[in-house]
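ok here's Helix-turn-helix domain-containing protein, seq below lol
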Amino acid sequence: MGTPHRVVVLALDGVYPFELGIPSRVFDAAGGRYEVLTCSIDGGPVRTNADFSVSPPQGPEALRTADTVLLPPFDTAKLTREPPAGVRDALASLPPGARVVSICTGAFVLAGAGLLDGRPATTHWALADLFRAWYPRVRLDPDVLFVDDGDVLTSAGATSGVDVCLHLVRRDHGIAVANRAARICVAPPWREGGQAQFIERPVPEPVANGTAPTRRWALENLHEPLTLADLAGHARMSLRTFVRRFNEEVGTSPGRWLIRQRVDRARDLLESTDLPVDDVAARVGFASGTSLREHLHAAIGISPLAYRRTFRGDLTARR
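and the structure came out like this:
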């Protein structure tokens, strides 16, 4: 697999312990493809927002060796418009081409350092007004889980950090590796970055006839031309009730969810098989190869053949 991709996590004063541990948990589950180091801005201990401190083994010099730098969130009481002392210089020392990622309040540090000017970004929805007031040059979207802008990625709070890290594994190494990492972490393998941060009822009322069984059935029958009526019929609900409950439980519409599953399955087949594009389309329930091309391009901006060349070529090179 070659030299592991080095991820350096910068822990700032007031860091949230849960998010601080996400990079190691997710990237270490990717089978040796990443090396995760944790550093502080002065090489000393860092107080968390809990009742303990942590002592990262690295100082800011570790940032100069990073392929990816990740800023976990810190207590909102520590928020300042300008980055904490030394952080701007430390970020300026990153090697050319290094990728920068933030979770939640970490986006404030990137914005304060000028790294988000003119870029799309997100942070926790509850901090959106303050973020806009401090950083009007940033194209903030507080309604999404994460934003991938190439070499800079920002995510919302808590578990969206898991989402963005799995997204990077997926982007770097493909669906199969990301899915294995997700299974090891017992996490959902994919939550779309554009999914809403805030769902009206994030924990739905327990009901005997929720939509989970129908979602499992749909995944087992993606090759069929499933319609909204088919899904509602399987769930034994009216269309209106099914759509409402689906949105409450999943945070997106049934149609959008179904297309996402078809595209994901198609990507898996493009990576792992030599099936012609039309056969891949048929196996995942798209009417034709043209339909697959349109949906794949809408999702990731690339054609099936280009996607296959990229991932199959990368995998061959790694082997």
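fwiw Confidence is low (pLDDT under 50) at residues 314-319. kinda neat tbh
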